[in-house]
Amino acid sequence: MEYKIVPAADKVVRIIEFMAQSPTGAYGVTEIAQQLGLNKGTVYPILQTLIYHQWVEKSGGGSKYSLTNRLVGLSGNLLKGDRLISDFMLVGAELERQCGELINLHYMYGMSTAILAARVTVSRPFAAGGPAGGEHDPHHRLFGGKVPGMRVR
Question: Across the chain, what does the average pLDDT equal?
């Protein structure tokens, strides 16, 4: 099937996908423009529009841009009625009881993974900030240093 691509919408999607490659990273207008082969005069107003809609925020003293967590909220809304997730929550509770481990449902896309659902029981709160990796990393505290995984067929 052939799709009619709207150039302006295509550029917005390309910028968001580029920035999502490193969600903790911040990018300047020039870097985004060079990486995507776009003009800075095209990238800047798109970023301003994304800021207005709270998809992007300024960082690095106002010269860099990074994604907000708005995409996470949208994906959560999309998955609310998903039967796989509701079934997982039932099965996950039993698996957690049997093995005493945190149980997650991951979605694999290429080399990327996203947690769709988790049966989270954490005995102590953790900080969302701090240095990445090691015992101060939130993922280390959630997973006890393990990388859980479960394939669903």
Answer: 74
Architecture of domain 7-71: Orthogonal Bundle (1.10)
Please check whether residue 103 is in contact with residue 96, taking contact to mean a CB–CB distance below 8 angstroms: yes
Rounded CA-CA distance 117/89 in Å is 8
Choose the weakest-confidence range: 60-64, 77-81, 135-139. 135-139
State the residue for tokens 């095209």: 42
| CB proximity list for 135: less than 8 A, separation 6 or greater | 141, 145
- E-assigned strands of the chain? 56-59, 64-67, 103-109, 112-119
CA distance 9 to 26: 22
Predicted structure pTM score: 0.57
Q: Where are the domains of the chain?
A: 7-71, 81-143
Helix or strand (DSSP H, E) at 141: helix 138-143
First to last CA, the chain: 28
pLDDT score recorded for residue 135: 45
Residue 113, number of CB atoms within 10 A of its CB = 13
